[in-house]
Amino acid sequence: MRAAMTAMLAAALLGCSAPAATQEGAVQAKPIMGWGDLLGRAQPKPDATLSYGKDALQVIDVWVPKGQREDGRPFPAVIMIHGGCWQTAVAERDIMNWIADDLRSHGVGVWNIEYRGVDRGGGYPGTYQDVGAAADLFARDGAKYGLWTDAPRIAIGHSAGGHLALWLARRPGLAADDALRGIDPLTIDLAISQGGLPDLRAGAASSGHACGAEAPAAMAGGDYARTSPPEMPLGAAREIQFNNDRDRVTPPATGEAYRAAMAKRGRTVTLEVTPDEGHVELIAPDSASWAKQRAAILQAFGMAAK
Fold first, then answer.
1. Burial of 21 by CB count in 10 Å (0-12 exposed, 13-18 middle, 19+ buried)?
2. How far apart are CA 286 and CA 159, in angstroms?
3. What's the pLDDT score for residue 29?
4. HSE-up of 65 (CA within 13 Å, CB side)?
5. Quick one: what percent of the chain has pLDDT higher than 90?
6. Spatial separation of the C-alpha atoms in residues 12 and 195, rounded to whole Å
7. 290 phi and psi, to 5 degrees?
8. pLDDT in tens, 53-74
9. Residues 41, 47, 52, 54, CA torsion sign
10. Top-level CATH class of 2-12+33-300?
11. What's the angle, vertex CA 21, arms to CA 18 and CA 27, rounded to 5?
12. Where are the domains positioned within the chain?
């Protein structure tokens, strides 16, 4: 299963780990990570897995730090959403296990969401219904696992999951009777996009992108005002885009385009670009880009770095 997933990720995201071209005689740039460099490691495991629906993919992995906080409070936690071109066959939630474990070791819990991809009954509206239901369950049941559900709420997502993290932050701004919004949607204070693909309209019109045009079109369902963050209601969450300069799936230009689009709407989006790293490093616990993301998370929770 692990070998098959590695092969599918490599095929779907072809080119994201290739080294930058150099002129003859120039100093060779350091290699960037490929999927095998991450997925080939011993995989840490969550503390619990719970269901939020009847489908086998409607589950959440819960990661809970050990011990107790000095102030006696429960542990703050992030809502985490994996990528994989919105397709279950490309990736599932366990590609996030390494950074989930890293956060757990730093005193932060993780609510790692699985969802139906466009190839497994998701897309529009299923994927959104899944992500919304799983996030709302955090508010209701997170305390059962020792998680502080009233702490600043952070959603973080990688690649296609970055789109879903931003969508989750914008979701409360949808119409009160909108089925994608739900009755009492979880409010998000900080949305972190890890090399995200926020613009479904651009994705559906793309040619030659690693994720193709069919998946973002299926995610939009022709209704970009409810599904694509650049066109959705603004909401109140702070947003940070993390991009790496050697990422061929979501290069810094992707984050810059989103930041520019939001600036035209009067909303400031922070863009943080890390040099000499690619798409995989964004979810690798020993990378420079992840260190920046972790620092942003700890700062949002008012926690000092260990």
1. exposed
2. 18
3. 73
4. 20
5. 84
6. 16
7. -65, -35
8. 999 999 999 999 999 887 888 9
9. positive
10. alpha beta
11. 110
12. 2-12+33-300
Q: Which residues pair with 158 in a beta bridge?
A: 194
Give the orientation angle of helix 123-141 with respect to helix 160-170, to 10 degrees. Answer: 60
Neighbours of 48 (CB within 10 A): 11
